[in-house]
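> example.struct
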């Protein structure tokens, strides 16, 4: 079973983005629980749809922030988002064709991707916003530390 645990190192200091990330962690975990319980292809398919919608909306939010602040890493970050969407679409197609192993691959892939992407690209993005005193609900580092208390 793949389970992804939210921990303080994933907080980036933007309340909305942090909530969206936490929701993505829970969606991955819910999908894994459904797989482990032997839910039907229909139920799993519906869960994948919800996850895809949430992920696309989250990426659009991040990409909008990056454009609004002329983030120099925008192209690279968007490319990471686009590659994830392509990979997930491929795994969903395999799942729809009856390859149950694709679901296990998908949850493992998503769990790993989330952890690395947040700690890498997303934290670089927020550091840029903070260094340029962005005003889109970005918390300064001292407030980020308060989450751990």
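> example.seq
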């Amino acid at each position: 079973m793949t389970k992804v645990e939210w921990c303080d190192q994933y907080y980036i200091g933007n309340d909305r983005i942090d909530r969206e990330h936490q929701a993505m962690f829970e969606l991955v975990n819910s999908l894994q629980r459904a797989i482990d319980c032997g839910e039907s292809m229909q139920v799993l398919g519906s869960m994948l749809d919800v996850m895809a919608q949430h992920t696309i909306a989250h990426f659009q939010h991040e990409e909008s922030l990056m454009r609004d602040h002329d983030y120099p890493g925008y192209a690279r970050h968007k490319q990471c988002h686009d590659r994830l969407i392509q990979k997930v679409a491929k795994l969903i197609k395999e799942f729809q064709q009856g390859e149950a192993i694709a679901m296990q691959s998908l949850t493992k892939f998503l769990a790993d991707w989330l952890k690395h992407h947040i700690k890498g690209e997303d934290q670089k993005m927020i550091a840029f916003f903070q260094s340029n005193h962005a005003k889109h609900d970005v918390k300064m580092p001292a407030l980020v530390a308060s989450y751990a208390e």
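> remarks
Confidence is low (pLDDT under 50) at residues 138-149.
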